């Protein structure tokens, strides 16, 4: 492995969307002194606020993942040291997986190490569910339906239920609870514009939802320093976390040894997050994200820098890696502030109570006193777009 005394060698490429997923990863690496080359897919119509981070060496802004891959292959094709690629969205993970064979000799990227399945197969939600089930994890009852032709729903289908594209990289994540066949068929018809196969799952009435965050080298070493317990989310039921509690006491929620077994059996190398629903009686495996999670900065705040640790593992720097902590050093409260403010706006939650909650937050996903500009650009863009809508 190519290493020298200059921190930041080999080069680090962050490949992702204009979103706090990408920003949190850049900040985690930057805070340890590893500045990134950013290939930013600006598909959400927002001003590219992520590109304003102080931890970026150079940025390319592209319209889609195919153009982004082209930038990577042309700009980093002749490096003496293999660059590391960190994807932050499912579409970026998928295109790297599809092109893995032609990239593996020139780049270090997330991969399935010495296993019979591909990274693309591991992105399949039914593959995730059956693998989880095979090692003893509970999963919601599920059905796979072909929607490329006339849809025939299974007779044993249970309502209420939800429907998802079998591959989350190919469609929007606008989930709805369906109480009837008519409603379900309408959603399947909409999803058929993006995919040919969908997964229908029974709807679990949850007590809470938790997300485990970690990294693995694909060879038996897996680190899971904490989980994030959702206190509230926006939109309700299927939204991203607004307010959450981050804790290292994982066993209070989940049989974490089963999660280690899942990752190791898969043979995955890279950053990941695993989502579970907790009802009154059971914990249900939902899915695994084979990339940096939107909450991926939280372990960094708690003292465990996941991207840096995977970087060390991939560059064979075991001496430093072995000295680093494997669990966060304290529990804390997090907030994704631009989502959570929608709770009082949309659902009537008291603004006074929300502000009290805000004052007790330890870690925000947008605001960061060490890296302020992305926050202000995001805020000003939101304000500008609101004013523009009002004036129309």
Automatic annotation (TrEMBL):
| Designated name of the protein | ATP-grasp domain-containing protein
Q: What PROSITE patterns does the record tag this protein with? A: ATP_GRASP
The record's SUPFAM superfamilies line, in alphabetical order, gives:
Glutathione synthetase ATP-binding domain-like
Give one GO term, molecular function aspect: ligase activity
Q: Which GO terms describe its cellular component?
A: cytosol
Occurrences of domain ATP-grasp (ranges): 129-315
Per its UniProt record, what InterPro entries does this chain match?
ATP-grasp (IPR011761), ATP-grasp_carboxylate-amine (IPR003135)
């Amino acid at each position: 492995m190519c290493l020298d005394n200059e921190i930041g060698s080999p080069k680090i490429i962050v490949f992702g969307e204009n979103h706090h997923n990408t920003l949190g990863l850049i900040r985690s690496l930057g805070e340890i002194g590893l500045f990134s080359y950013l290939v930013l897919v600006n598909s959400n119509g927002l001003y590219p606020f992520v590109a304003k981070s102080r931890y970026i060496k150079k940025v390319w802004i592209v319209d889609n993942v195919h153009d982004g891959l082209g930038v990577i292959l042309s700009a980093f094709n002749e490096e003496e040291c293999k660059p590391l690629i960190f994807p932050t969205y499912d579409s970026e993970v998928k295109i790297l997986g599809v092109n893995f064979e032609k990239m593996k000799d020139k780049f270090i990227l997330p991969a399935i190490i010495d296993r019979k399945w591909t990274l693309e197969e591991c992105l399949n939600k039914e593959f995730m569910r059956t693998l989880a089930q095979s090692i003893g994890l509970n999963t919601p009852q599920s059905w796979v339906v072909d929607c490329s032709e006339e849809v025939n729903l299974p007779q044993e289908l249970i309502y209420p239920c939800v429907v998802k594209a079998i591959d989350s990289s190919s469609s929007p994540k606008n989930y709805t609870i369906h109480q009837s066949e008519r409603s379900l068929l309408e959603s399947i018809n909409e999803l058929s514009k993006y995919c040919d196969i969908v997964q229908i799952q029974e709807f679990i009435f949850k007590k809470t939802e938790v997300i485990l965050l970690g990294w693995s080298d694909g060879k038996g070493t897996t680190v899971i320093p904490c989980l994030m317990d959702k206190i509230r989310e926006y939109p309700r039921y299927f939204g991203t976390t607004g307010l959450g509690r981050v804790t290292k006491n994982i066993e209070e929620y989940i049989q974490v040894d089963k999660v280690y077994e899942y990752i190791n059996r898969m043979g995955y190398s890279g950053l990941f997050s695993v989502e579970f629903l907790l009802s009154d009686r059971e914990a249900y495996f939902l899915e695994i994200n084979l990339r940096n999670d939107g909450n991926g900065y939280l372990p960094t705040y708690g003292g465990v820098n996941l991207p840096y640790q995977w970087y060390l593992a991939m560059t064979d720097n075991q001496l430093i890696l072995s000295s680093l902590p494997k669990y966060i050093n304290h529990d804390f409260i997090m907030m994704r502030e631009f989502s959570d403010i929608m709770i009082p706006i949309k659902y009537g939650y008291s603004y006074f109570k929300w502000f009290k909650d805000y004052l007790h937050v330890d870690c925000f996903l947008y605001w960061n006193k060490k890296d302020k500009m992305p926050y202000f650009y995001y805020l000003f863009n939101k304000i500008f777009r609101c004013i523009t809508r009002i004036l129309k």
